[in-house]
Amino acid sequence: VIATFQTLMNKMEELAKYKFGLMIVDECHPVPAAMFRKVNAVIRAPYKLGLSATIERLDGMSRDVFGQLGDVQSKVSIRELINRGILAEPRFQSPIIVDRAITNEVQDSGLSGLKYSRLIKRKSASSQKKKDFIVNTCNNIAARDRKFLLFTDYVNAEDVFVRDMYADSLIEEGVRVNVIDQQMTSDERGSVFGFLESGDISG
Prior knowledge:
The chain is mainly alpha-helical. The protein has 10 helices and 2 strands. It has a two-stranded parallel ribbon. Helix 3 links the parallel strand 1 (22-26) and strand 2 (47-51). It is extended.
Protein backbone atom coordinates (compact mmCIF):
# COMPACT_ATOMS: atom_id res chain seq x y z
CA VAL A 1 0.00 0.00 0.00
CA ILE A 2 1.38 3.42 -0.96
CA ALA A 3 -0.38 6.42 0.52
CA THR A 4 -0.01 9.79 2.21
CA PHE A 5 -0.80 10.29 5.87
CA GLN A 6 -3.62 12.61 4.88
CA THR A 7 -5.28 9.73 3.01
CA LEU A 8 -4.67 7.24 5.81
CA MET A 9 -6.28 9.58 8.32
CA ASN A 10 -9.57 8.97 6.52
CA LYS A 11 -9.07 5.19 6.54
CA MET A 12 -8.12 4.60 10.17
CA GLU A 13 -10.70 1.87 10.86
CA GLU A 14 -9.75 -0.07 7.74
CA LEU A 15 -6.05 0.45 8.41
CA ALA A 16 -6.31 -1.08 11.86
CA LYS A 17 -7.60 -4.36 10.40
CA TYR A 18 -4.36 -5.20 8.60
CA LYS A 19 -0.88 -6.36 9.59
CA PHE A 20 2.17 -5.22 7.66
CA GLY A 21 5.69 -6.59 7.66
CA LEU A 22 7.33 -3.19 7.14
CA MET A 23 6.25 0.44 7.22
CA ILE A 24 8.48 2.87 5.28
CA VAL A 25 8.12 6.59 5.96
CA ASP A 26 9.77 8.70 3.29
CA GLU A 27 10.75 12.22 4.43
CA CYS A 28 10.15 11.19 8.02
CA HIS A 29 11.17 14.44 9.74
CA PRO A 30 7.50 15.60 10.09
CA VAL A 31 6.52 12.54 12.17
CA PRO A 32 6.17 14.50 15.44
CA ALA A 33 2.97 15.98 13.96
CA ALA A 34 -0.29 14.92 15.58
CA MET A 35 -1.57 13.42 12.32
CA PHE A 36 1.37 11.04 12.06
CA ARG A 37 1.03 10.03 15.71
CA LYS A 38 -2.58 8.99 15.14
CA VAL A 39 -1.78 6.99 12.02
CA ASN A 40 1.34 5.42 13.52
CA ALA A 41 -0.61 4.29 16.56
CA VAL A 42 -2.92 2.04 14.52
CA ILE A 43 -0.40 0.63 12.04
CA ARG A 44 0.66 -2.86 13.06
CA ALA A 45 4.12 -3.46 11.65
CA PRO A 46 7.07 -5.08 13.47
CA TYR A 47 9.55 -3.01 11.46
CA LYS A 48 9.34 0.70 10.74
CA LEU A 49 11.88 2.50 8.55
CA GLY A 50 12.20 6.27 8.31
CA LEU A 51 14.16 8.08 5.58
CA SER A 52 15.24 11.72 5.74
CA ALA A 53 18.03 14.01 4.61
CA THR A 54 17.00 16.68 7.14
CA ILE A 55 16.37 14.77 10.35
CA GLU A 56 17.48 17.61 12.64
CA ARG A 57 14.47 19.80 13.44
CA LEU A 58 14.80 23.43 14.50
CA ASP A 59 12.03 23.00 17.08
CA GLY A 60 14.00 20.36 19.00
CA MET A 61 11.53 17.57 18.15
CA SER A 62 14.10 15.31 16.49
CA ARG A 63 14.03 13.01 19.53
CA ASP A 64 10.35 12.37 18.88
CA VAL A 65 11.21 11.06 15.42
CA PHE A 66 13.50 8.48 17.01
CA GLY A 67 10.90 7.74 19.68
CA GLN A 68 8.36 6.73 17.06
CA LEU A 69 10.63 5.09 14.48
CA GLY A 70 13.70 4.02 16.45
CA ASP A 71 17.34 5.06 16.42
CA VAL A 72 19.37 5.86 13.31
CA GLN A 73 20.59 2.60 11.76
CA SER A 74 22.43 3.94 8.71
CA LYS A 75 23.82 7.35 7.84
CA VAL A 76 25.49 8.66 4.68
CA SER A 77 27.21 12.04 4.65
CA ILE A 78 26.90 14.57 1.85
CA ARG A 79 30.67 14.31 1.32
CA GLU A 80 30.40 10.56 0.78
CA LEU A 81 27.59 11.04 -1.77
CA ILE A 82 29.71 13.62 -3.60
CA ASN A 83 32.73 11.28 -3.62
CA ARG A 84 30.57 8.48 -5.03
CA GLY A 85 29.31 10.73 -7.83
CA ILE A 86 25.70 10.72 -6.64
CA LEU A 87 25.69 14.44 -5.78
CA ALA A 88 27.51 17.26 -7.50
CA GLU A 89 30.00 19.35 -5.58
CA PRO A 90 28.08 22.50 -4.60
CA ARG A 91 29.55 25.92 -5.24
CA PHE A 92 27.95 28.95 -3.66
CA GLN A 93 28.17 32.58 -4.71
CA SER A 94 26.48 35.60 -3.16
CA PRO A 95 26.80 38.49 -5.61
CA ILE A 96 25.72 41.93 -4.45
CA ILE A 97 24.04 43.97 -7.17
CA VAL A 98 23.68 47.67 -6.37
CA ASP A 99 20.95 49.49 -8.30
CA ARG A 100 21.07 53.08 -7.03
CA ALA A 101 17.97 54.24 -8.91
CA ILE A 102 15.76 51.62 -7.32
CA THR A 103 17.42 52.01 -3.93
CA ASN A 104 16.72 55.75 -3.94
CA GLU A 105 13.13 55.24 -5.08
CA VAL A 106 12.46 52.79 -2.27
CA GLN A 107 14.11 54.98 0.36
CA ASP A 108 12.12 58.03 -0.74
CA SER A 109 8.78 56.17 -0.89
CA GLY A 110 7.70 57.14 2.62
CA LEU A 111 6.20 53.69 3.11
CA SER A 112 6.66 51.38 6.07
CA GLY A 113 5.78 47.92 7.28
CA LEU A 114 4.18 45.48 4.84
CA LYS A 115 3.73 48.08 2.08
CA TYR A 116 7.44 48.90 2.27
CA SER A 117 8.39 45.20 2.07
CA ARG A 118 6.14 44.69 -0.93
CA LEU A 119 7.62 47.72 -2.69
CA ILE A 120 11.15 46.38 -2.16
CA LYS A 121 10.12 43.01 -3.56
CA ARG A 122 8.45 44.44 -6.66
CA LYS A 123 11.14 47.02 -7.40
CA SER A 124 13.87 44.44 -6.95
CA ALA A 125 12.16 42.26 -9.53
CA SER A 126 12.20 45.21 -11.94
CA SER A 127 15.93 45.92 -11.65
CA GLN A 128 17.53 45.95 -15.09
CA LYS A 129 20.95 45.47 -13.49
CA LYS A 130 19.79 42.32 -11.74
CA LYS A 131 18.10 41.05 -14.88
CA ASP A 132 21.24 41.60 -16.96
CA PHE A 133 23.39 39.82 -14.37
CA ILE A 134 21.10 36.78 -14.21
CA VAL A 135 20.66 36.53 -17.98
CA ASN A 136 24.41 36.82 -18.56
CA THR A 137 25.11 34.19 -15.89
CA CYS A 138 22.64 31.72 -17.43
CA ASN A 139 23.96 32.48 -20.91
CA ASN A 140 27.54 31.76 -19.82
CA ILE A 141 26.48 28.45 -18.24
CA ALA A 142 24.62 27.39 -21.39
CA ALA A 143 27.60 28.37 -23.56
CA ARG A 144 29.68 25.77 -21.67
CA ASP A 145 27.05 23.07 -22.43
CA ARG A 146 25.98 23.03 -18.80
CA LYS A 147 22.45 23.20 -17.40
CA PHE A 148 20.83 25.68 -15.05
CA LEU A 149 17.64 25.95 -12.98
CA LEU A 150 16.37 29.49 -12.43
CA PHE A 151 13.88 30.18 -9.63
CA THR A 152 11.99 33.47 -9.97
CA ASP A 153 9.31 35.44 -8.17
CA TYR A 154 5.88 36.05 -9.61
CA VAL A 155 5.62 39.61 -10.91
CA ASN A 156 7.66 42.79 -11.10
CA ALA A 157 6.60 46.38 -10.54
CA GLU A 158 4.93 46.51 -13.96
CA ASP A 159 2.90 43.36 -13.24
CA VAL A 160 4.93 41.32 -15.71
CA PHE A 161 5.65 37.71 -14.83
CA VAL A 162 9.34 37.70 -13.96
CA ARG A 163 9.78 34.11 -15.10
CA ASP A 164 8.45 35.02 -18.56
CA MET A 165 10.67 38.12 -18.69
CA TYR A 166 13.76 36.01 -18.04
CA ALA A 167 12.63 33.30 -20.45
CA ASP A 168 12.04 35.82 -23.25
CA SER A 169 15.42 37.49 -22.61
CA LEU A 170 17.27 34.18 -22.67
CA ILE A 171 15.52 33.04 -25.85
CA GLU A 172 16.52 36.35 -27.47
CA GLU A 173 20.12 35.48 -26.53
CA GLY A 174 19.74 32.12 -28.28
CA VAL A 175 19.50 30.08 -25.07
CA ARG A 176 16.96 27.26 -25.25
CA VAL A 177 14.75 27.28 -22.15
CA ASN A 178 11.33 26.14 -21.01
CA VAL A 179 9.11 27.60 -18.29
CA ILE A 180 7.45 25.42 -15.66
CA ASP A 181 4.33 26.72 -13.90
CA GLN A 182 1.67 25.36 -11.60
CA GLN A 183 -0.91 25.10 -14.38
CA MET A 184 1.13 22.39 -16.12
CA THR A 185 0.22 18.74 -15.71
CA SER A 186 2.72 16.29 -14.25
CA ASP A 187 3.25 14.86 -17.74
CA GLU A 188 4.02 18.31 -19.13
CA ARG A 189 6.50 18.98 -16.32
CA GLY A 190 8.06 15.58 -16.94
CA SER A 191 8.48 16.44 -20.61
CA VAL A 192 10.39 19.61 -19.72
CA PHE A 193 12.84 17.69 -17.57
CA GLY A 194 13.10 15.13 -20.35
CA PHE A 195 14.15 17.91 -22.74
CA LEU A 196 16.69 19.07 -20.14
CA GLU A 197 18.15 15.60 -19.78
CA SER A 198 18.41 15.06 -23.53
CA GLY A 199 20.10 18.42 -24.06
CA ASP A 200 17.25 19.91 -26.12
CA ILE A 201 17.14 22.79 -23.65
CA SER A 202 19.74 24.30 -21.32
CA GLY A 203 17.45 25.41 -18.52
